[in-house]
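Protocol step 4 of 5: obtain the predicted structure for the target chain.
Materials: sequence only (see below). No template structures provided, no constraints applied. The aim of this step is simply to have a reference model before the mutagenesis design in step 5. Sequence pasted as it appears in the construct record:
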Amino acid sequence: MTTKEVADKLVGYCRQGQFENAMKELYSPEIVSIEPDGAPMKEARGMEEVIAKSQHFMESVEEFHSNEVSDPVVADNFFSCSMKMDVTFKGMGRMTMEEVCLYKVKDGKISEEQFFFTPAPQG
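Step 4 output (structure tokens):
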């Protein structure tokens, strides 16, 4: 798949809330995922760690209220999009999360992802 095809598929999955399907189909087994300083898990390497990180996030959510994903911006082997989620977290209440997501595609799979957002204070 081209970078544009991967980007369009990822955005489609994310708009439907099908994050696990996106990972299984579009991520390289050697995926590297990077979060900003202050996030619960700064870096995950490999499919097993990335899925565990995603499951940890999903388990912290009490309720999803809405999810918005922008169209992707594609350049060379990279693409980015913004995501906005209205979420109630267990023990933290309802909040809106906004982030910019940057992805690198290698051999038709997402090999790296990096998220840019302001982490919520951890208590």
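Step 4 remarks: Residues 3-116 form a domain with the Nuclear Transport Factor 2; Chain: A, fold (CATH 3.10.450.50). Helices lie at 3-15, 19-26, 47-60.
Proceed to step 5.
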